[in-house]
Design a protein that fits this description.
Layout lengths: L4 E2 L14 E3 L19 E2 L1 H11 L3 H8 E6 L4 E6 L12 E2 L3 E2 L7 H5 L2 E8 L6 E7 L13 E3 H8 L1 H20 L8 H12 L1 H9 L11 H9 L1 H17 L10
Parallel strand pairs: 1-8
Antiparallel strand pairs: 2-10, 3-5, 4-5, 6-7, 8-9
The structure holds iron/sulfur cluster (2 copies).
One iron/sulfur cluster (SF4) binds next to loops.
Amino acid sequence: MKDKKINTSEIPPEQLSLSSKFKFDCHKGVKCFTDCCRGIDIMLTPYDILTMRNKLEISSEEFLAEFTTPQLLEKADLPVVMLKLLDDKRKSCPFVDDKEGCAIYSDRPTTCRYYPLGVGSLSYSGESGEKDEFFFTVKESHCKGFDENREWTVAEWREDQGVDLRDQVNDGWMELIVRKKSLPESMKLSQESKTMFFLVCYNIDKFREFVFNSTFLERYNFSDEIIATIKEDDIKLLQFGFDWLKASFFQTGKEEFKVK
Ligand code: SF4
Ligand code: SF4
């Protein structure tokens, strides 16, 4: 399984829409069971980190230190985090069990849910939130799932795997990356901006500390309702962070993110 977010210079030959059909199934009976959980590149999304750290009952800081490797996303020039593999012969995912499969199945990353589908963005319209997305199948020789007879539409697969909700939560993060990628190379973000991007997107517990234990809230006119919501809900805090980054990076977005 490879990272499925591609850039527009790597558009695959067959683009699928939500109603396109494909045949695939994956279960404990396939010969290749868990083969795709070794030697892989999995980019973690902000929501992946949030749910995986909950599942493992550790902080986002501990999760990052133990299970991830930072990387710089070329072209967008923004930091991302990759799942760190074990140092065994097959470079296994730390959560795979030969017999039982994924030990964190209900909280597995978005990339694992999409597989064997990939998704690409041709554009992101910004303020209207409209995306020009397409899908494609990732056919790897070791994967026997395509020999199975179960038929899906892309929309059915997405719903079954729970990627709709994940994409919805991660939307602001994806928009930041796509918009940054489309800027001319000369428009660089400062190191401080990249550090803030990392903090908001991947280290939610530290971002919470930053918001509530610094002078941050004094610099803006956020309503009591917003403050109460982000205080009790990690997902809302994450999406608030995306909006704040969008306003800082591109000087667009919601009025309340203007500094007093
Ligand atoms: S997180 Fe689970 S599904 Fe994803 S690679 Fe690891 S074991 Fe496989
Ligand atoms: S069928 Fe494909 S997705 Fe399922 S275990 Fe085998 S390689 Fe992985």
